[in-house]
Amino acid sequence: MTSFGITNFGLFLMAVLLLNATPGPDTAYIVGRSVAQGPRAGLMSALGITVGCCIHATLSAFGLTALLAASATAFMAVKLAGGAYLVYLGIRMLFSKQSSSADHGQTLDLRPHKTIFVQALITNVLNPKVILFFLSFFPQFVNHDSPHKILAFLLLGAVFATMSLCWNSGTAMLAGALTRHASSNPHIKQWLERTVGVAFIALGIKLATTRN
Fold first, then answer.
1. Helix axes of 39-70 and 113-125: crossing angle, nearest 10 degrees
2. Which residues sit opposite 6 in a β-bridge?
3. DSSP helix/strand/coil, 179
4. How far is it, in rounded angstroms, from Cα 110 to Cα 159?
């Protein structure tokens, strides 16, 4: 991967795995659809979310590459700001309070699979937190001197989307049983959030001490 200008690829894989393992809105939507309508509905949800991630990755690739081409200093500023944002996310996860899960048992209405796909896609694409995450996360793993910047971003996006699709599809096929338990159990959920929080803080600190 270094030939494409990608750095710390192993750390990238670990961070994506931890991110997928942490119960969040996307997981809750997939689990809810799978429990309410079966694995196929959950798979459609996973596919919609994955397509949304591909859109974010593509927009980030071309937008960030254009910024890097215009000014390496500006791109470094984006990386530093992104690192600070990752540290902020990590701190929030470390000190997050246990939230109520009373609404997990609510029965969801039945929806056509096309509607499920579109709703999952729109929910992901229009989520400002997802936009900020992609803009802050991907630049940490691309060398600003690489001649293949767009390809590097697109490869990272493809890996991210593939890993997310595999994880989310597995969640759907299992009818969300294990993930639902983790989401509703405050101790497991808090442990997962703190693990990812530490990883994000470490990633932000690593950015501040390296000049990729």
1. 30
2. 142
3. helix
4. 32
Q: Rounded distance, CA 94 to CA 55, Å?
A: 29
Q: Is the pTM of this model over 0.70?
A: no
142 DSSP β-pair partners:
6
Q: How far is CA 179 from the centre of its chain?
A: 16
Q: Cβ(109)–Cβ(33) under 8 Å? A: no
Q: Do residues 203 and 11 make contact, with C-beta atoms less than 8 angstroms apart?
A: yes
Report the C-alpha gap between 181 and 41 in whole angstroms.
Answer: 19
Q: Tell me the residue type at 86.
A: L
Rounded CA gap, 189 and 21, in Å? 10
Residues whose CB falls within 8 Å of the CB of residue 18, separated by 6 or more in sequence, listed in order: 195, 196, 199
Q: DSSP secondary-structure letter at 194?
A: H
How many other CB atoms are there within 10 angstroms of residue 22's CB atom? Answer: 19
Encoding tokens for residue 68?
A: 């890097």
pLDDT tens readout for residues 121-149: 887 787 666 777 787 788 888 887 777 78
pLDDT tens figures, 155-171:
999 999 999 999 989 88
- Backbone φ and ψ for 6, nearest 5 degrees, come out as -90, 130
Distance CA 70, CA 74 (A): 8
| Best CA proximity match to 31, nearest among 108, 111, 127, 131 | 108
Question: Residue 99 and residue 86: Cα distance in Å, rounded?
Answer: 22
Pull the structure tokens for residue 39: 């694995």
